[in-house]
Amino acid sequence: MSGFKSLPALLLYVFISAVFISALHANTNNNGLKKIIQEAIKDGEVRHRLVRFYDEKSNLAKEEFFGTDGSLQKERNYSYDSRGNKIAFAETRYSNGEKVEEFQLRSAEYEYNDEGNIIREYAFNADDEKYLKYEYLYDDDGNKSLQVWYNRDGSVFQRSVYSYNDSKTLIDILGFGETLIKRIAVNKDSRGNKILETTTLPDNTETDRTEYTYNDNNNLVEKIIYKNGIQIRKEISEYDDSGKLVYTKTNETEFRNLETVLSYKYDSLGREIEHFLESEFDSGKKMITRTRFEYYN
What we know:
The protein is mainly beta. It has one helix spanning 7-24, and strands spanning 33-42, 45-54, 60-66, 72-80, 86-95, 98-99, 106-112, 118-124, 130-138, 144-150, 156-164, 168-174, 180-188, 194-200, 206-214, 220-227, 230-239, 245-252, 258-266, 272-281, 286-295. It is 6% helix and 59% strand. It has a 20-stranded antiparallel β-barrel. The longest helix is centred in the first third of the chain and has 18 residues, at 7-24. The protein is globular, with a radius of gyration of 21 Å. The N and C termini lie far apart (48 Å). Residues 1-16 and 18-28 have low confidence and may be disordered.
């Protein structure tokens, strides 16, 4: 199957995907996390490296991104309030070891309500001028009821309106003039697990569909994604007797055939210490993404 991405772009795509997979499958017993080191390896050489540093409260403090030549390409620094809420991050980019001036001020700031819910997110333009990017409202139960996305000039670009019942969440994405762009519906089972998520257009045409299946222990064992009625991704997960995730196998066909196996290792305290992502393309090319976890104690 021919695809839209070149192989180097696909390798980076797999690496970035692995970063998101790490977040989605993060073990909840990772207290005391100090550092995460993630490396994309091809033909025995490290092609990309991401290092995440955490403070003693397990808050992400800094990220460093390294390129194929091992040089630092960019870093992000995060700050938090006394309750552990992220209130700002700043990004700096580098070229040949030197800071790239126009990216030094790329950053964001966040505001929260008394319940710890984010209510405003600010960004900065190239002149270091702060502007409101997102604003959020919540209902009496603490559920998000409205998200507003602003243009830099302060006008509304898009609104997302949320409504809830016991088994379903509806999200209406509204554009200019309150015109419905699409509707996202999330269905849940009696245990609160997401079992189905669909995206439909105003004419009720379904464009995206994701199905979720759980075992008797409430662990996600299968996830299937469809786009325009065609299956583009399938994930199957296995767990050990204690309920820890052992591996996830994925088959993806959206751009070209890609098969991956993500396996996990834990220490005696049940904390994740390594996971290993093996990716194979339909061309026979392979890549490995290795992620290691370090702890304060």
